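Section 3.1: Structural characterization of target chains.
Under the original work plan, the team committed to producing a structural model for every single-chain target entering the pipeline before any wet-lab resources were allocated. The record below documents one such target. The sequence was received from the expression subgroup and is listed exactly as submitted; it comprises 306 residues.
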Amino acid sequence: MMQTLDILQAAHRDTIDSRMDLLELKEQEIPGSAHYVIRRYHASTFANAEDKGMLVYHYSKNHPDENFFEMRFCITGNKYCSEKNCLSCRQEEEARCKSHDTIDVFSFHFASNFLYQFVHNVKLANRKDEVLAFKYPYSFNKLFPVCNRKRMVLDALLNNSFSGALENVYTNAKVHELLLYSVECLIEEKEEGFACKFLENESGRDSIYKAREILLDHIGNPITIKELSRKVAINECYLKKGFKEIFGTTIFDFYQQQRMEHAKYLLYEKSLSVTDVSDLLGYSSISHFSAAFKKHTGLKPCELLR
């Protein structure tokens, strides 16, 4: 099951997940601005997405030419139709409508030399200024909600009639709006950065992300925190605190959620029996699996069987 965080982290790839059908791909380099990609996916039952944004700030002291700032967004609730006149469909023609509910994924990539224009001859007074000037010395990812202002801009990028040079002008203006609203999200950020100091080091953050990947690889073969800490070469205390700070949840709760989402997929989409799913997820008994499943979903496993 694809979660919003997975979608945002993979927003720069050509395909997020083989179970998500790509309906449309639009990629463009706006002259003198950003490189952007918009991917529209069919909103299938394999994705559990909510409107969310992510800022990605990459800083390298030794390789400044590799510095970049990226905005990623995942939004739902829109429709896509290959027919250009879809919006003029009549009510009585709905039965023949070819439109799809979508999960729309945006990625806007800014190089440091482009952002420099906004901080030239500006006194760097806070973190947002330091980020735009690439003077903030630590890379970071930051999740934030998609407010109405951002949502309106994103929807406008999907639904406009401009083409050619005017499309570039329009898109450039909207991308600048998104940049403004998104950087605003950094204003309330604590200047000291991460609460866990070891996360200020890129290797520390990499260890936490690696731990998450290992957990996902062990959906059917439970792993203890002690074993996990050994695999990522970080002590248990740092592992638990760092995981909670980056992903906003405990290791146990994250792991349980992923297992139950996978169980839903196996039961509903693959039509496996409760016994088979319980075995595949490494439960010692069907009753333990059923209790965990009901606690997470509010349903008994048998209720999802086709």
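The two ends are 18 Å apart (CA to CA).
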